[in-house]
């Protein structure tokens, strides 16, 4: 237990007692000018009595433990309660003792008001003195940086309160930009609101002209500062050479302000600003999702996730666990990754029945036995080999995992009586130039055929395919690569200056996957017509992003200058890579749906039995090491597959050890 500061508390008791005594003659003069008692005995007993009355009334309000220079609204409310209580106690004592008292019945009110004024004055003075320390250097430290604070008014207020608690603040807020135009011209804690976040370009131009350009822009808490709005703000800051940082999370600021021992702790705590992350920049407002439909689909059912140790599979497991399945089975071939996600779920959902299974989706006998034993009702198939250059070097492994493994899982799920299987696909399956993309297209074809067959017959397992582009932060993706390269001081490697990719946060992608699962599993009146014919759900990924622009932005977010502090080096396209990824094939034009964030690709399906036999033939060629035969069969099944010569000879054109972002 933390020790109290007895000398400070004793000093507060003495000062409050003196204030109680000083307030009595002032209140008597206000209530009855010139009509005070002449008895010295009255004064000798009344003055200490008034002080004791205040101390007694102040104990329940914890007046002796108040930290004067950090007084806030709750402290002032406590002062008001103690003042009223002390005046009432003193007035009651005069009545009980039959002592002289003013004839004016308003005396207790005047007494309470004088007490409140005298108690509040030194506390407010201490508060103002503490706030004034932020304007100059302290103890030989450098002057505080001037800051333009941007965010919602509540977040701005919390940040200013936290800043005022520092003994020697490193930041001095000179202006505020809020999210609402109607707040312009007003003030928050004395700082002027100069405009809105959307007007930051004009505001910075004006401040530069007035030679008042801030040294730092700090983003306070605010839901509007993400995606495109955040990108515009960063662009304006870049033009003026002003770095941008993010304030600590709201909960940390709130805890510093109101938590146990906040006053003492807050005096020493430093506000730690953090860089803006690229995930925040590329994030978009969350589209409305059918949470009730997801709960209907998942709650009380046995759910299995393949590839549960991966980025998508792991996030699927987290979100599925929140809907209370009867049992959650995590299946992965990687021991460590499987252990990590199982441990995380055991900590977050200790009461959730779950099972971690080490298995390879290509092991047909093992997968069939598992499914027969576990009898999953919902299967989310996220297991895949997805790194394009690595699959180009070992194409047979990619075909066995992505195409044959999908068939194994789908057949086992259907045989075990599963109601729904969801296949996680990729934009690289559209007009593929890589074995990875073509193998995922083959997996799409098989699942589409199974789904069309089930819907035509009116029975059997539904198969929903969901296609989308890159997710931020996934294993082997560009953002973690750039971060590692930045930590080493560069260079950042990009394959081509015109390389573009679609990006989405993993949270948003998985939320939309679950939304597509609900639409695909239920026979709803508003379901897309193309779904009955094996159509593929495609996530609305927004606009593609140039990888070189992403690299420049990450360098700037790190507080560095592209091509000055950190080099960007172009390394050339790798085997199987395309400059532009596509979400729709020319023969599957996109169709809108009634569900935000979801599009539908017009179906291109084949017979399930024919596709299944072809996959078996490819798998047999892969096991025999017949690379050319396997790739030739793949090209026949996926006629749009335009494979380069580098892949046919094992990717000899790839430079071993080179790293580049795609």
Radius of gyration: 34 Å
What structural class do you assign from the helix and strand content?
Answer: alpha/beta
Major β-sheet, in short? 9 strands, mixed
What is the total domain count? Answer: 3
Give me the CATH superfamily of the largest domain.
Answer: NAD(P)-binding Rossmann-like Domain
Number of helical elements: 23
- Helical amount: 40-55%
What is the top-level CATH class of the largest domain?
A: Alpha Beta
* Silhouette: elongated
Low-confidence stretches: 134-139, 258-268, 645-662
The CATH topology label of the largest domain is Rossmann fold
CATH architecture of the largest domain: 3-Layer(aba) Sandwich
Percent range for β-strand residues: 5-15%
TL;DR?
The protein contains 23 helices and 22 strands. It is of the alpha/beta class.
Topology:
Blueprint: H1 6-31, H2 40-58, H3 73-97, H4 107-132, E1 145-150, H5 153-164, E2 171-178, E3 187-188, E4 191-196, H6 200-209, E5 216-219, H7 227-240, E6 244-246, H8 250-258, H9 262-268, E7 274-275, H10 278-282, H11 291-298, E8 302-306, H12 311-321, E9 327-332, H13 335-348, E10 354-358, H14 364-374, E11 378-381, H15 388-393, H16 395-415, E12 420-426, H17 435-457, E13 462-468, E14 470-471, H18 478-487, E15 492-494, E16 500-501, E17 503-504, H19 506-521, E18 536-539, E19 545-546, H20 547-557, E20 568-570, E21 590-592, E22 598-601, H21 608-623, H22 627-637, H23 645-648
Parallel strand pairs: 1-2, 1-5, 2-4, 5-6, 8-9, 8-11, 9-10, 11-12, 12-13, 13-18, 14-17, 15-20
Antiparallel strand pairs: 3-4, 6-7, 16-19, 18-22, 21-22
Helix pairs in contact: 1-2, 1-4, 2-3, 3-4, 5-8, 6-7, 8-9, 11-19, 12-19, 14-16, 16-17, 16-21, 17-21, 17-22, 18-20, 21-22
């Amino acid at each position: 237990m933390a020790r109290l500061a007895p000398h400070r508390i004793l000093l507060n008791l003495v000062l409050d007692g003196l204030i109680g005594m000083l307030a009595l003659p002032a209140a008597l003069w206000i209530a009855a000018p010139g009509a005070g008692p002449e008895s010295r005995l009255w004064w000798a007993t009344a003055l200490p009595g008034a002080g004791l009355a205040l101390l007694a009334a102040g104990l329940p309000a914890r007046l002796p433990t108040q930290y004067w220079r950090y007084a806030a609204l709750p402290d002032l409310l406590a002062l008001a309660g103690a003042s009223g209580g002390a005046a009432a106690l003193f007035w009651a004592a005069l009545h009980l003792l039959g002592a002289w008292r003013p004839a004016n019945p308003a005396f207790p009110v005047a007494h309470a008001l004088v007490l409140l004024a005298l108690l509040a004055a030194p506390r407010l003075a201490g508060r103002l003195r503490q706030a004034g320390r932020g304007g100059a250097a302290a103890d030989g430290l450098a002057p505080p940086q001037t800051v333009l604070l941007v965010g919602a008014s509540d977040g701005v207020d919390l940040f200013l309160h936290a800043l005022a608690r520092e003994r020697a603040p490193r930041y001095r807020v000179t202006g505020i930009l809020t999210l609402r135009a109607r707040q312009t011209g007003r003030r928050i804690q004395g700082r002027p609101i100069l405009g809105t976040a959307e007007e930051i370009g004009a505001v910075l131009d004006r401040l530069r002209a007035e030679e008042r350009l801030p040294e730092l822009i700090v983003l306070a808490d605010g839901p509007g500062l993400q995606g495109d709005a955040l990108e515009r703000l960063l662009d304006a800051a870049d033009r003026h050479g002003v770095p941008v940082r993010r304030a600590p999370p709201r909960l940390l600021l709130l805890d510093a302000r109101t938590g146990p021992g906040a006053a003492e702790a807050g005096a020493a705590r430093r506000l730690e600003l953090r860089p803006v992350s690229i995930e925040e920049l590329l994030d978009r407002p969350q589209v409305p999702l059918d949470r009730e439909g997801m709960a209907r689909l998942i709650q009380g059912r046995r759910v299995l996730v393949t590839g549960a140790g991966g980025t998508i599979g792991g996030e699927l497991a987290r979100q599925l666990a929140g809907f209370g399945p009867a049992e959650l089975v995590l299946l992965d071939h990687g021991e460590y990754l499987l252990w990590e996600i199982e441990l995380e779920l055991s900590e977050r959902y200790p009461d959730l029945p779950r099972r971690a299974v080490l298995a390879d989706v290509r092991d047909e006998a093992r997968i069939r036995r598992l499914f027969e034993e576990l009898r999953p009702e919902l299967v989310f198939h996220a297991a895949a080999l997805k790194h394009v250059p690595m699959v180009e070097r070992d194409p047979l492994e990619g075909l066995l995992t992505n195409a044959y493994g999908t068939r194994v899982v789908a057949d086992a799920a259907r045989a075990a009586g599963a109601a729904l299987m969801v296949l996680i696909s990729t934009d690289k399956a559209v007009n593929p130039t890589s074995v990875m993309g073509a193998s995922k297209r083959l997996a799409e074809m098989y699942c589409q055929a199974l789904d069309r067959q089930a819907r035509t017959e009116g029975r059997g397992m539904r198969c929903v395919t969901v296609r989308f582009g890159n997710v931020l932060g996934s294993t082997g993706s560009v953002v973690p690569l750039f971060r590692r390269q930045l930590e080493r001081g560069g260079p950042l490697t990009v394959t081509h200056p015109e390389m573009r990719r679609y990006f989405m946060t993993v949270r948003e992608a998985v939320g939309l996957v679950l939304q597509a699962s609900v639409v695909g599993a239920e026979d709803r009146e508003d379901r897309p017509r193309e779904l009955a014919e094996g159509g593929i759900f495609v996530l609305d990924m927004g606009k593609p992003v140039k990888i070189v622009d992403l690299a420049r932005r990450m360098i700037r977010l790190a507080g560095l200058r592209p091509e000055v502090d950190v080099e960007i080096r172009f390394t050339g396209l790798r085997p199987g890579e395309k400059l532009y990824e596509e979400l729709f094939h020319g023969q599957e034009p996109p169709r809108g749906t009634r569900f935000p964030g979801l599009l539908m690709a017009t179906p291109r399906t084949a017979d399930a039995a024919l596709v299944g036999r072809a996959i078996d033939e490819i798998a047999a060629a892969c096991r025999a090491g017949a690379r050319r035969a396997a790739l030739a069969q793949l090209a026949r099944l996926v006629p749009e597959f335009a494979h380069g010569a580098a892949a046919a000879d094992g990717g000899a054109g790839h430079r071993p050890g080179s790293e580049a972002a795609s």
